[in-house]
Amino acid sequence: MGIYVHVPFCRSKCFYCGFYSVASDRLKEAFIRALCAEVDLRRDYMGTLGVETLYFGGGTPSCLSLSELQILTEKLENVYCISPFAERTIEVNPEDLNAEKLEGWRRLGFNRLSIGVQSFQDDLLKGINRQHTSRQVLEGIEMAQHLGFDNISIDLIIGLPGQSPEILHQDLMQALGLSVDHISVYMLSVDAGSVLEKRYQKGLFCPLSEDELADRYDVVVQLLKEAGYEHYEISNFARNGKYSTHNTSYWQQKPYIGFGPSAHSYDLASRQWNVSNLKTYIESLNNKELNFEREELSCVDYYNEYVMTRLRTMWGIKGKDLREKFGFCWDHFIGQMRRNVERGWAVEGRDLFCLTESGWLVSDKIFSELFL
Predict the structure, then answer these.
(1) Which pLDDT band, with edges at 50, 70 and 90, does 116 fall under?
(2) Given the DSSP bridges, would you call strands 264-266 and 270-274 parallel, antiparallel or unpaired?
(3) Closest CA to 312 of 358, 350, 254, 360
(4) What does DSSP say about strands 2-7 and 256-259: parallel, antiparallel, or unpaired?
(5) Tens digit of each residue's pLDDT (9 = 90 or more) over 35-82
(6) Contact at 8 Å (CB) between 362 and 368?
(7) What is the C-alpha separation between 152 and 142, in angstroms, rounded?
(8) CA-based torsion, 106, 107, 110, 113: positive or negative
(9) pLDDT tens across 16-30, in order?
(10) Cis amide leading into 59 (omega within 30)
(11) pLDDT above 90 coverage of the chain, percent
């Protein structure tokens, strides 16, 4: 199984962000105590399953001190059997990439960095309220590689305000020059509650059209594939087999447990998610109470999730597996998928169904047609 830890603190809110976070560290100590209490209260949730991946996300986990991270990692190691070969990822902001923290993260067992770059253009970064510079990215990644991190992922965004096709091309060329083995490229979305949503509502921001985003996505895919990256998931590219093991487990319906406010968990039968409010989360755990909602999954729910997550990846869906798990859905699935093959959005071969890159661009439409 996997473990996800949501660290909700940020130094400032990025203008595009829709994830739960707070731009203050005032409650950090209380959060650390509460999360340790949650680990204790939920120690029986997954029984005796071993842990194959550990992922600290957020928010900004790299804004925690090394001593704070040590408290959390030791608590998890004391309660769970974490494989010595586990992938252990920490999301970091480039301004936190210094020798002290990098060496400390390695001592704590982190062997994979996920770095929020977004762009290499300082003016674009300022325009979305990022706190780092392009220079900090370049110097920080070089330092991380020098100190032994050989599994590094960076994030980029298509469609940032002021990002022309030429600037996007420059960003990709700089990313390729870093020699990292994993690159995630996301198309900008206007998330509810974000600053960009408010600007859009006031007419101060105009997002790219779907066709414009699609054209830029095609350019990104082509350049990264020419550079030797496998396009293994809608937004993710890897070289040398350096897929994100943790995220791949989500797409393969493996169980996971999430700690922290807004974190989700999945035990193969139900999904549950913690309250998305830091104060409420802390108050509940101070009273030794868990505050979450749960959804029991029906056969139809499981089929819908199976289709949606498997078709996000280059591994697709094996017809034999789907017939064994969801025989009652087969006629509906095969009919819809063969229509997608005719449209050029999917391929079928040797009882295997995968979406094409053009299919990934319209995946929401494909999924809605496949769902029951």
Answers:
(1) very high
(2) antiparallel
(3) 360
(4) parallel
(5) 999 999 999 998 888 999 999 999 999 999 999 999 999 999 999 999
(6) no
(7) 11
(8) negative
(9) 888 889 988 899 999
(10) yes
(11) 90
Q: Sheet containing 346-349: which strands, arranged edge to edge?
A: 317-318, 352-355, 346-349
Q: Which residue has the higher pLDDT, 189 or 8?
A: 8
Q: How many helices (H) and strands (E) does the chain have?
A: 15, 15
Among residues 158, 161, 156, 224, which one has the least CA distance to residue 187?
A: 158
How many residues are given for the chain? 372
**pLDDT score of 46:** 87
User: Nearest Cα to 183, choosing from 255, 262, 238?
Assistant: 238
SS3 helix, strand, coil % of the chain, rounded to 5? 45, 20, 35
Give the up-direction half-sphere exposure of residue 148: CA atoms within 13 A in the CB hemisphere: 10
Q: What integer pLDDT is reported at residue 48 of this predicted model? A: 80
Question: In sequence order, which ranges of the chain are alpha helices (DSSP H)?
Answer: 28-41, 66-79, 99-107, 122-127, 134-146, 165-176, 195-201, 210-226, 245-251, 278-286, 299-310, 319-325, 330-343, 357-361, 363-370
**Tokens 């079928």 belong to residue:** 348
Q: Which residues pair with 158 in a beta bridge?
A: 187
Angle at 243 between CA 186 and CA 65, to 5 degrees: 75
Q: Cα(132)–Cα(154) distance, rounded to whole angstroms?
A: 14
Residue 313's contacts (CB-CB under 8 Å, 6 or more residues apart) are: 232, 233, 248, 251
* Token pair 């169980």: residue: 255
CA distances to 59, 90, 251 from 93, in Å? 10, 10, 25
The mean pLDDT of the chain is 95
Q: Tell me how far apart the alpha carbons of residues 215 and 165 are, in angstroms, rounded to a whole number.
A: 9
pTM over 0.85, yes/no: yes
